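ugh finaly. both done.
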Amino acid sequence: MPDRRYDMLPEVLSGNLCSLHSNVDRYAVSVMWKLSPNYEVEKVWYRRTVIRSAYKLTYEIAQDLFDGQDPSRIIPGIPELKDSSLSQQDIQQRLSELTLAIRQLVDISRILREKRNSEGALELEGVEIRVQMGEKNNIEDLI
């Protein structure tokens, strides 16, 4: 049901302690990869870390940045830029850096996925089930 959200954790966890709010330290277990210039995984290690997100982005805003959408449409969706006292030049600089970072991560992800698939990775495809609701919000049918 795409119009609803069901948290798997209590609100105190999902909306606060386990949520990546910008400029807030969070404890994490991080997987670190050392990649070669052609994106071969050379070393993997795990660490207990403290992470701090610089921006709180929705998937839609990240996609808009990647797609090169009009900044005037994007900025209102990024609280750290919308509510800041930064100059327009600084905001544009930060948007540029953020866009570059997102594009680099997408490129790395694409290359690693292609390598994994070329080496015979297992692809599991799920079946999407749609729920047809009746007048009184009762489930009438599964499509």
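ok and the 2nd:
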Amino acid sequence: MARAATGVHYRSFRRCSTVATSQTGKTTFYLEEKLAEEMKDERYKFKAHPGIRNMPRITMPQQIERAIKTLTEKYPINQLEENAEKMSQYLWSRKLPTQDDVVKSKAQAYEQEIIEKESLDFSQMTEEAREFHEKRIKSKILAKIKRHLYHWEPIRYDAFQSMVYLTARFAPEYSALCRVFKEIKMNEPDFKPLSLFDSGSGVGTTAWAANQTWPGSIKEHYLVDISPQMNTLARLLMQDGDEDKETMCFPGVFFRQFHPALDQLTYDLVVSSYSLMEQSTQDNRLEMISSLWKKTDQYLVIIENGTNAGFQAIMEARDKVLKEGNGYVVAPCPHDLRCPKTLDESKPTPCNFPVCYKPMMTKTKEAKMSERISYVVLKKGSRPDGSRWPRMVSEPKKRTRHVHCDLCCKDGNVTHLPVTRSKHGRELYRCVRTSEWGDLVPAIQTDQSESVTKSHDSDPVTTCTSEHNNTNFEHVEHVEVT
């Protein structure tokens, strides 16, 4: 058999390879040269690579814990815990209101079904008989609609219900907000908001999370919630639970029940967390999003439960803003295209991410709970040039010497990527190995038509490809083929 010039034997191919690429169909992933060099020089720890977005179990500041304890002491703890559990389950199961056109369409279908089943012919009936059957059919239709269609009702918060909401939802919502605000901070480290607008502010959780993320930065807090009891409770929390205290822990706090009529005033950071589901119609949701976008000077953050309904509300808001223009998605999507998880309408799958938090009513210091959220962070202006790293959109499957992960990429697709050290290089493999669901993978995505093989070294390379396993190899000048 013919042999090449004396040099490296075929069996040494794998040892010579320093490739950090992955080919999936027509797509290739590779680490940026600068980042690969920094990781080689151990300037980055793999567990803290620049794509990490997840946070460990998030605990609340002691100041807010003390204030909550002061306020909840006035109520029987067992009663609060029991009602908090029920409220959490109810809020998680909550769905969007059924649209009027859907109800009308269903009613017509039910009516036709009943008429055909009973073989009714109204043209042959007397007026009295017709009225009798129409009334009976209407009653059957209403009963069927109640059984098969979701009956949405607004939630009314009195003083006790507000306290139950505080007990049930402050910890998970605070953790979710801190996690999403981290996306902004990592995306733009120099961003320091001076003003905050919170729509559906509830017990003021957004203000606490924003001030924890950007301490001392925000000078104006505009908090809007239709419930006066919620606003009162939020104010008491900022007064350390002391009704007689004249000052609040944050400057420039304004509580309102309704949005300002004019949209001329803008705010650096506008937030809607867990409030879209409380709008009675889709038109109201879209109108609210449009109003919030007009109030946004830099960032708009929207968060909902990670259910199908919550994800649907997030997608409505995302599409509405992108359609209006002058903005782009910062997170979680690395693109402004249609979400790939909405392409198969027969099998809706929410794009959601886990958040860990310490439950409020627990005596165990290491207690940890988790819930899933759907969210979107949008920014005014045009998307800047630069790399857009893919994001893990499901839990990576970490096996022996390889990792399977699903990545949402800048081309608008979800790519399944199996990563091994031998094929993709130590640096990319370790980055993926230490990443979790929701993190970014610091890799560049290219098409095969582009330069798909990137060296970890700055020297020119010669790339050889084995016909047996289609693996790329670098720094091989003389090859012996058997």
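summary for the 2nd one i guess: The chain has a mean pLDDT of 83.
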